[in-house]
Design a protein that fits this description.
The structure holds 2 protein chains of 2 kinds. By secondary structure, chain A is mainly β. Chain A has strands at 3-6, 10-14, 19-21, 23-26, 33-38, 44-50, 56-58, 64-68, 73-78, 87-95, 99-102, 106-111. The chains are: A mainly beta, B mainly beta.
Chain lengths: 112, 116
């Protein structure tokens, strides 16, 4: 069975500092991986996705993620965060059969 | 263009009552999904509609939950005899075709259901 583990439930960071949000997956088949962001009082928004090809994926708002097959990871990174990046971040894997399987989310709090 | 809309945005109900939650997908999207987001539980898949195909109901937690999609557009999620454990944010998403990881899901703002 496929599953997604987000290793940190909360990540506090100061503005302009780098951040990494960790995601590990388990899957016995080809993986398609996603990061979604949920800003306060807003719906989920696709940040980036890995389908195939280059293992480094760039998304919106300066975020990027690297697919590492040997470590079964898909960590999200940003070199310098802003206050406006404060949000809940969700990692997900697409399950053949049309479903997204989600991690529990990581709450990123950017402090001035 | 307009995104996915859901109504109501908030719903407070008493235990044992029935509730209906509505989702208007993006025009032209043939796939529609319902998820539940409970505190500390992440997102849980509930049901998936794709065009005129039979829906994938494998995520519905009990027979108190049902959903329909009329005319391939608007969808209604119905919870009968609500229980306190049904309290959650119910999210709807739509995508152009469904069934493929290349097909991005677009989410509505959700309906926050509170069962007293």
């Amino acid at each position: 069975a496929q599953s997604v583990t987000q290793l940190d439930s909360q990540v506090p960071v100061f503005e302009e500092a780098p951040v990494e949000l960790r995601c590990n997956y388990s899957s016995s088949v080809s993986v398609y991986l996603f990061w979604y962001v949920q800003y306060p009082n807003q719906g989920l928004q696709l940040l980036l996705k890995y389908l195939s090809g280059s293992t480094l994926v760039k998304g919106i708002n300066g975020f990027e993620a690297e697919f590492n097959k040997s470590q079964t990871s898909f960590h999200l990174r940003k070199p310098s965060v802003h206050i406006s990046d404060t949000a809940e971040y969700f990692c997900a894997v697409f399950l053949l059969g049309r479903k997204l399987i989600w991690g529990l989310g990581t709450s990123l709090a950017v402090n001035p | 263009g307009a995104g996915v809309s859901q109504s109501p945005s908030n719903k407070v109900t008493e235990k044992g009552k029935d509730v209906e939650l509505r989702c208007d997908p993006i025009s032209g999207h043939t796939a529609l999904y319902w998820y539940r987001q409970s505190l500390g539980q992440g997102l849980e898949f509930l049901i998936y509609f794709q065009g005129n195909s039979a829906p994938d109901k494998s995520g519905l937690p009990s027979d108190r939950f049902s959903a329909e999609r009329t005319g391939g557009s608007v969808s209604t999620l119905t919870i009968q005899r609500t229980q306190q454990e049904d309290s959650a944010v119910y999210l709807c998403a739509s995508s152009l075709r469904g069934g493929s990881p290349t097909d991005t899901q677009y989410f509505g703002p959700g309906t926050r259901l509170t069962v007293l």
